[in-house]
Design goal:
Blueprint: E1 5-9, H1 12-27, E2 33-39, H2 45-53, E3 61-67, H3 74-85, E4 92-98, E5 109-112, H4 116-125, E6 132-133, H5 134-146, H6 151-167, H7 173-192, E7 211-212
Parallel strand pairs: 1-4, 1-5, 2-3, 3-4, 6-7
Helix pairs in contact: 2-3, 4-5, 6-7
Length: about 210
């Protein structure tokens, strides 16, 4: 898998945030960066191919961004884009973003970015489950990566999950009180800054959740 080729699928405002974040991260590694942008609605495959193979003595790194990839036809992908990506240099990064893509991306990494509200609804629907799976926990982690300061929403969902468990008598009231106390302390530590609200703190929830593989 080539780490310098990435696909971001989802609403434009969210995919743009991920691309901006990627550019900032790359800027820490290279001093001289050149960013070129293309748009699927007016995509020029020959120009894109030439851009991939262009060499410059004055630029350390080039980032080629293709927006609106849902407008690019399958033939263009198979005849121009993918053959060019096979020979992409290590200091050239190709980022593709859009609502969807008309071909399978094969070995290239694809990140599907959902609206925060939809992710939260998914987590809330699962609050009735006795055991949350590792996939469910991944959904929580994903939500926090996209919305690092929305920890209060996650705390609220987990509290609802515990309430549902005690209502259905899947845990005892004593166990409910014990877990709720831990959750309240975690909430206080996050709000007071004793625990960083940056993504990663959610592993502390594992002591409260019955997580299955």
């Amino acid at each position: 898998m080539k780490d310098n080729v990435k696909f971001y699928l989802g609403p434009h405002n969210l995919t743009s945030e991920r691309i901006d974040f990627f550019i900032r991260k790359i800027s820490d590694r290279y001093k001289n960066i050149e960013v070129k942008r293309y748009y699927g609605s007016e995509f020029n495959p020959e120009a894109f191919r030439d851009e991939i193979f262009e060499n410059s003595l004055f630029v350390e790194c080039r980032i080629i961004i293709v927006h609106q990839i849902e407008h690019i036809e399958k033939k263009v992908w198979t005849e121009f884009i993918f053959p060019s990506l096979e020979k992409i240099s290590e200091n050239v990064f190709a980022l593709f973003e859009g609502l969807s893509v008309k071909v399978k991306t094969g070995e290239y990494a694809v990140e599907t970015i959902e609206d925060a509200e939809n992710l939260l609804k998914k987590i809330y629907r699962k609050s009735w489950q006795k055991r949350l799976s590792t996939v469910d926990f991944y959904e929580i982690s994903k939500f926090l990566r996209l919305n690092p300061y929305e920890f209060a929403l996650v705390i609220g969902v987990i509290e609802k999950h515990l309430e549902n468990l005690v209502i259905r008598k899947l845990i005892s009231e004593q166990e409910f009180i014990r877990r709720l106390k831990i959750l309240s302390e975690l909430d206080f530590n996050l709000k007071s800054g004793k625990i960083s609200s940056e993504p990663g703190w959610e592993v502390l929830l594992l002591s409260l959740l019955d997580v299955s593989g």
